[in-house]
């Protein structure tokens, strides 16, 4: 019998050793993606920088990997900032995002000396003005703008449209008020602009439209205020393969087109090309992770469907219930057997919507089989919850065929330790 191997390691062995449900990550695959970015973007184009969007997958070990690869990191909350601080992440290589950063979070970021804060709105700008004055510390900022473009992805992960909770719309002049305020302040160092149009995007066209709109803003900011944009941050969002009909595109598919458009648009307006920054998250870690489960109850409703339930579900992977996300699964201990039946993989939560895969073709399935769900490296561990008081799974990292535990399985005690 042939078991399914991931990153060169037998997944049934991993399931037995660490128990299930279990997140398994491949460090080699993460490093492959990072190397592709280095070769085809960072080394190919001068004056560029990459910040890993840590919301996709963040643990202390992941922060260490990003640190040792000398990439920057994007954090979006006090908690993500705290996590990267635990591994002494160089502050100048941190970008702090968020549409409602609290005063406490901003203070923490300024005290630590983060390299850039991406300012989302005028309220945040006023908070920053006060805090920087109080600490007598200057902070570099970029304004997040909504460039007014759609993106071909699920509605809940689109962020570039005008009607968005993120960023300052380009259409109503608020952005010029923001620029004027920032330029007046002694403590705010305005570097440029940021946009992020959404996530799991496979086509470059909407990015290009967004770039055109934001370079137009750069030209307008120069005309009105003499402001020279030093940095243009175009976010992340590059798609990965979850199911057979999808294909992850090489990073150069996006970045070559971005660089060409930025050069051209800047030329048209007589602007110098600013530093170009990207913030990929999912593209780096998504396919580098799988989740292992044990099949428990199998329920056949004759003529309707077969439900095969696993020992995890929406608590470790909320994406199917949030975005109708689709996943591919493999019965790991029967990897060499031909599929002969179709089952529905259900989670163990008290929710009818807790279905991981609606139609999965499997060989004859039995309780005790190990299911591997693929491409769970992004937004699974990071969005996991304790609904139904289900503990979060452990995380194992594999490098060069050797497995190591990087996050312990949560215990029942862990879950109630703050309860009085
Ligand atoms: C500002 C910002 N940058 C980068 C990302 C990373 O997105 P992705 O994981 O799709 O690359 C996100 C999340 O969508 C984001 O909100
Ligand atoms: N959580 C989303 C991505 C959101 C990215 C943050 N703007 C997902 O799982 O697809």
Automatic annotation (TrEMBL):
Family recorded in the similarity comment: Belongs to the Orn/Lys/Arg decarboxylase class-II family. LysA subfamily.
Function: Specifically catalyzes the decarboxylation of meso-diaminopimelate (meso-DAP) to L-lysine.
Known EC number: 4.1.1.20
Listed cofactors: pyridoxal 5'-phosphate
Domain of life from the UniProt record: Bacteria
Name used for this protein in its record: Diaminopimelate decarboxylase
Top-tier EC class: lyase
InterPro entries for the chain: Ala_racemase/Decarboxylase_C (IPR009006), DAP_deCOOHase_LysA (IPR002986), De-COase2_N (IPR022644), Orn/DAP/Arg_de-COase (IPR000183), PLP-binding_barrel (IPR029066)
GO MF assignments: diaminopimelate decarboxylase activity; pyridoxal phosphate binding
Active site, UniProt feature: 350 (proton donor)
Biological process, per Gene Ontology: lysine biosynthetic process via diaminopimelate
Residues annotated as domain Orn/DAP/Arg decarboxylase 2 N-terminal: 32-285
Sequence positions that bind substrate: 282, 319, 323, 351, 379
Catalytic activity: meso-2,6-diaminopimelate + H(+) = L-lysine + CO2
Signal peptide segment: none
Complex and partners: Homodimer.
């Amino acid at each position: 019998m042939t078991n399914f191997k991931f990153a060169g390691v037998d997944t049934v062995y991993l399931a037995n050793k660490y128990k299930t449900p279990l997140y398994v990550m491949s460090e080699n695959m993460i490093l492959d993606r990072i190397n592709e970015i280095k070769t085809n973007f960072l080394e190919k184009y001068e004056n560029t920088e990459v910040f890993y969007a840590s919301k996709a997958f963040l643990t202390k070990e992941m922060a260490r990997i990003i640190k040792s690869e000398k990439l920057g990191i994007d954090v979006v909350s006090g908690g993500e900032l705290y996590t990267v601080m635990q591994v002494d992440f160089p502050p100048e290589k941190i970008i702090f995002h968020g549409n409602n950063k609290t005063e406490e979070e901003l203070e923490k970021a300024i005290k630590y000396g983060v390299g850039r804060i991406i300012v989302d709105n005028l309220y945040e700008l006023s908070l920053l003005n006060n805090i920087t004055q109080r600490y007598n510390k200057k902070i570099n900022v970029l304004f997040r703008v909504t460039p007014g473009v759609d993106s071909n992805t699920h509605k809940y992960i689109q962020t570039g449209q005008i009607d968005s909770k993120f960023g300052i719309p380009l259409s109503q002049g608020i952005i010029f008020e923001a620029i004027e305020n920032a330029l007046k302040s002694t403590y705010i160092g305005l570097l440029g602009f940021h946009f992020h149009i959404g996530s799991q995007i496979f086509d470059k066209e909407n990015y290009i439209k967004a770039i055109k709109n934001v370079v137009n803003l750069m030209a307008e900011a120069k005309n009105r205020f003499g402001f020279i944009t030093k940095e243009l941050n175009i976010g992340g969002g590059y798609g990965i393969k979850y199911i057979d009909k999808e294909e992850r595109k090489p990073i150069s598919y996006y970045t070559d087109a971005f660089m060409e458009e930025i050069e051209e648009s800047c030329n048209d307006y007589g602007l110098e090309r600013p530093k170009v920054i990207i913030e990929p998250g999912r593209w780096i870690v998504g396919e580098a992770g799988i989740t292992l489960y044990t099949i428990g109850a199998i329920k056949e409703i004759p003529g309707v469907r077969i439900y095969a339930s696993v020992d995890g579900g929406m608590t470790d992977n909320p994406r199917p219930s949030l975005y109708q996300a689709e996943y591919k699964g493999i019965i790991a201990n029967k990897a060499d057997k031909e599929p002969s039946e179709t089952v529905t993989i259900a989670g163990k939560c008290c929710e009818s919507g807790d279905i991981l895969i609606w139609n999965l073709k499997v060989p004859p399935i039995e309780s005790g089989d190990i299911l591997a769900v693929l491409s769970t490296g992004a937004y699974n561990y990071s969005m996991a919850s304790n609904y139904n008081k289900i503990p979060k799974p452990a995380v194992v990292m594999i490098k060069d065929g050797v497995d190591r535990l990087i996050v312990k399985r949560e215990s029942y005690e862990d879950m109630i330790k703050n309860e009085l």
